[in-house]
Design a protein that fits this description.
This protein has 453 residues and is of the alpha/beta class. It has helices at residues 11-23, 34-44, 60-70, 85-93, 106-120, 123-135, 144-156, 173-182, 204-209, 226-229, 245-257, 283-288, 294-300, 317-329, 341-348, 355-369, 377-383, 403-421, 426-432, 437-446, and strands spanning 3-7, 27-31, 48-52, 76-80, 98-101, 163-166, 191-195, 234-238, 259-261, 268-270, 274-279, 303-306, 338-339, 374-375.
């Protein structure tokens, strides 16, 4: 169990993070502003602090500076809904362990927590968290497309070949990387992740290769980089297509020579690392546009694995629903709830631009907000924004037999989505839709629309 302090002026963010970490079995404290945070840091001695950047009074960067003055070894993760490169650079130079942007992803938060505890050397806590993280990364599905992925993972995992995992956001690229590590001879060593898109170009070299004390402002101690942390194990470079060309050149050298040099240092350090990379970009197009090095591409793409989007393996959706429902129930004292066949069919018919990640979040929402022992198709229509960027119009294509029925279903979905967007402010929604308010009330009554929650 870790002691975690969450500092954010938004109550909803504090509560969401508290629930996530409480559920994982950690001791969580919260603070609504910088003054309260500084007081609680001294009282509870947290293992990790999640600190918002923008707060009234003392902002997060000032609080970070004061925390580091009092406790130079404090681990602080900065979070921001308005993240910029300059802010991330300043936070890192002031000693922040990591920088995350809102909206916060639960898996990313848990991985950050695990990595922080590993750095802290809290092996018992890491072991428990590692077990929880592994349960979040099971490849689920029996479609031909996903079986091909699993077969390739099983074939290449025992080797030391580099793998480039491609696919849209939310398809499970990190899941594939973790499976490759778990089935390899390096499974007993570390799996170290670095999100190349989240690290400013000015800091990528320090993050990957480490630095020497005093090598730049904020380098208050020697720090190993991700390559050293992964020595003997696996380094997963996520969103590798977002690296700057300068960073790509340094990574290429490390892959070719098997040695790295810390920023500000002169000693060459030999590392034994298997590199796995992932991207949602077409790297061949990036090469043509001059954004990615061709030589690095061929170094990384020894074995390619493409993870298909959920819309190309809809037959897996019933199994995924069952899996996520069971995981939601795990550790909770509540009765088993099922999904009706109609609800499953409705969910399987949606587009899911956010892929498996979006489906998982939707299943959790349905289990929390729907009433009764069974989630129904009506619950899906009411509580799901549609599983598509069209804001719910996917449901209009399921079940209608005439054009008039289709129009009614499409109109219902469209109006419901707009009401949600404007927090059920009927006057504002009517203004946006350029519709008399009385007409909108009639539509709400006609389609039986009610505010969820």
């Amino acid at each position: 169990m870790a002691r975690i302090l969450i500092v954010d002026d938004e109550a909803s963010i504090r509560e969401a993070l508290r629930q996530l970490f409480d559920y994982e079995g950690h001791e969580v404290e919260v603070a609504g502003d910088g003054i309260e945070a500084l007081r609680m840091v001294g009282e509870v001695a947290p293992d990790l602090i999640f600190l918002d950047v923008k707060m009234p009074g003392l902002d997060g960067l000032e609080v970070l500076g004061r925390i580091r003055e009092r406790q130079p070894d404090a681990l602080v993760v900065m979070i921001s809904g308005h993240g910029t490169i300059d802010t991330a650079v300043e936070a890192t130079r002031k000693g922040a362990y990591d920088f995350l942007q809102k909206p916060l992803d639960s898996d990313r938060l848990l991985v950050t927590l695990r990595n922080a505890l590993e750095m802290r050397g809290l092996s018992a806590r890491v072991e428990a968290l590692q077990s929880e993280v592994s349960t979040r990364h099971e490849i689920v599905g029996d479609s031909h497309a996903i079986r091909q992925v699993v077969e390739r993972v099983e074939r290449v995992a025992p080797t030391d070949a580099r793998v480039l995992v491609t696919g849209e956001n939310g398809t499970g690229k990190e899941l594939v990387a973790r499976a490759l590590h778990a089935l390899s001879s390096r499974a007993g060593a570390g799996f170290v992740e670095v999100n190349c898109a989240a690290i400013p170009g000015e800091l990528i070299e320090s993050e990957l290769f480490g630095h020497i004390k005093g090598s730049f402002t904020g380098a208050v101690a020697d720090r190993p980089g991700k390559f050293e942390q992964a020595d003997g194990g696996t380094l997963f470079m996520d969103e590798v297509g977002d690296m700057s060309l300068a960073a790509q050149a340094k990574v290429l050298r490390a892959l070719e020579q098997g040695v790295i040099t810390r920023v500000g240092g002169q000693k060459a350090i030999r590392v034994d690392v298997r590199v796995l990379a992932a991207t949602n970009k077409d790297l061949l197009e990036e090469i043509e546009e001059g954004n990615f090095r061709e030589d690095l591409y061929y170094r990384l793409n020894v074995v390619p694995i493409h993870v298909p989007p959920l819309r190309e393996r809809r037959e897996d959706i019933p199994m995924l629903i069952q899996h996520f429902a069971a995981r939601h129930r795990r550790g909770r004292d509540e009765e088993r709830r099922t999904f009706s066949a109609e609800a499953v069919a409705r969910l399987a018919g949606l587009d899911w631009p956010g892929n498996v990640r979006e489906l998982r979040n939707t299943i959790e929402r349905l289990l929390i907000l729907s009433a009764g022992p069974e989630v129904t198709a009506a619950d899906v229509d009411l509580l799901v924004s549609g599983g598509s960027s069209s804001g719910g119009l996917g449901v209009a294509f399921d079940g209608g037999t005439t054009f008039a029925e289709f129009k009614d279903r499409a109109e219902r979905a469209f109006i419901l989505q707009k009401l949600r967007e404007y927090d059920w402010n009927v006057s504002e929604t009517a203004r946006i839709l350029e519709m008399p308010r009385s007409n909108l009330y009639k539509k709400i009554e006609k389609y039986g629309l009610v505010r969820e929650g």
